[in-house]
Amino acid sequence: MTDTDTTALEAAAFRRLRDHLMVQRPDVQNIDLMILAGFCRNCLADWYRDAAQERGLSMTRDEAREAVYGMPFAEFKARHQAEATPEQLAAFEARTRSS
Protein backbone atom coordinates (compact mmCIF):
# COMPACT_ATOMS: atom_id res chain seq x y z
CA MET A 1 0.00 0.00 0.00
CA THR A 2 1.33 3.45 -0.88
CA ASP A 3 1.36 6.53 1.34
CA THR A 4 -1.34 7.97 -0.92
CA ASP A 5 -3.50 4.88 -0.32
CA THR A 6 -2.98 5.15 3.44
CA THR A 7 -3.91 8.83 3.41
CA ALA A 8 -7.03 8.14 1.34
CA LEU A 9 -8.14 5.36 3.69
CA GLU A 10 -7.52 7.49 6.78
CA ALA A 11 -9.45 10.37 5.23
CA ALA A 12 -12.35 8.08 4.35
CA ALA A 13 -12.43 6.69 7.90
CA PHE A 14 -12.42 10.21 9.33
CA ARG A 15 -15.26 11.28 7.03
CA ARG A 16 -17.26 8.23 8.05
CA LEU A 17 -16.72 8.94 11.77
CA ARG A 18 -17.63 12.61 11.25
CA ASP A 19 -20.77 11.69 9.29
CA HIS A 20 -21.75 9.11 11.89
CA LEU A 21 -21.52 11.71 14.66
CA MET A 22 -23.20 14.46 12.59
CA VAL A 23 -25.97 12.56 10.85
CA GLN A 24 -26.62 9.23 12.49
CA ARG A 25 -25.87 10.12 16.13
CA PRO A 26 -26.10 13.86 16.76
CA ASP A 27 -27.90 12.89 19.97
CA VAL A 28 -24.68 11.55 21.49
CA GLN A 29 -23.50 14.25 23.83
CA ASN A 30 -19.91 15.48 23.78
CA ILE A 31 -19.56 14.89 27.50
CA ASP A 32 -20.56 11.23 27.02
CA LEU A 33 -17.89 10.89 24.33
CA MET A 34 -15.36 12.45 26.72
CA ILE A 35 -16.35 10.10 29.54
CA LEU A 36 -16.26 6.96 27.40
CA ALA A 37 -13.59 7.69 24.81
CA GLY A 38 -11.56 10.61 26.12
CA PHE A 39 -12.34 12.79 23.09
CA CYS A 40 -15.30 14.59 21.58
CA ARG A 41 -16.31 16.49 18.47
CA ASN A 42 -14.42 19.56 19.72
CA CYS A 43 -11.27 17.44 20.02
CA LEU A 44 -11.73 16.28 16.43
CA ALA A 45 -12.09 19.89 15.34
CA ASP A 46 -8.91 20.85 17.23
CA TRP A 47 -7.01 17.96 15.61
CA TYR A 48 -8.38 19.00 12.20
CA ARG A 49 -7.19 22.56 12.75
CA ASP A 50 -3.80 21.34 14.00
CA ALA A 51 -3.41 19.27 10.81
CA ALA A 52 -4.25 22.32 8.70
CA GLN A 53 -1.76 24.48 10.55
CA GLU A 54 0.96 21.81 10.25
CA ARG A 55 0.48 22.12 6.48
CA GLY A 56 0.69 25.91 6.57
CA LEU A 57 -3.05 26.40 6.14
CA SER A 58 -4.81 29.06 8.17
CA MET A 59 -7.95 27.86 9.93
CA THR A 60 -9.87 29.29 12.85
CA ARG A 61 -11.37 27.23 15.62
CA ASP A 62 -14.84 28.10 14.32
CA GLU A 63 -13.95 26.97 10.79
CA ALA A 64 -12.61 23.67 12.11
CA ARG A 65 -15.68 23.11 14.25
CA GLU A 66 -17.96 23.79 11.28
CA ALA A 67 -16.00 21.19 9.27
CA VAL A 68 -16.58 18.61 12.01
CA TYR A 69 -20.12 19.57 13.07
CA GLY A 70 -21.37 20.21 9.54
CA MET A 71 -22.80 23.53 10.66
CA PRO A 72 -21.76 26.39 12.91
CA PHE A 73 -21.05 25.11 16.41
CA ALA A 74 -23.67 27.39 17.99
CA GLU A 75 -26.33 25.96 15.68
CA PHE A 76 -25.36 22.36 16.46
CA LYS A 77 -25.32 23.15 20.17
CA ALA A 78 -28.78 24.73 20.03
CA ARG A 79 -30.20 21.78 18.06
CA HIS A 80 -28.53 18.81 19.73
CA GLN A 81 -26.52 19.54 22.85
CA ALA A 82 -28.15 19.38 26.26
CA GLU A 83 -26.73 20.73 29.49
CA ALA A 84 -24.58 18.15 31.24
CA THR A 85 -26.33 16.42 34.10
CA PRO A 86 -24.79 16.25 37.57
CA GLU A 87 -24.19 12.53 36.93
CA GLN A 88 -22.35 13.24 33.68
CA LEU A 89 -20.24 15.92 35.33
CA ALA A 90 -19.36 13.55 38.18
CA ALA A 91 -18.43 10.77 35.74
CA PHE A 92 -16.31 13.20 33.73
CA GLU A 93 -14.55 14.42 36.86
CA ALA A 94 -13.89 10.82 37.96
CA ARG A 95 -12.48 9.97 34.54
CA THR A 96 -10.18 12.96 34.45
CA ARG A 97 -8.91 12.16 37.97
CA SER A 98 -8.08 8.58 36.97
CA SER A 99 -6.30 9.56 33.75
From TrEMBL:
Residues 28-93 form the SMc04008-like domain. Pfam families: DUF1244. InterPro entries: SMc04008-like_domain (IPR023163), SMc04008-like_sf (IPR036810). It comes from the Bacteria. This is DUF1244 domain-containing protein. It comes from Thermomonas carbonis.
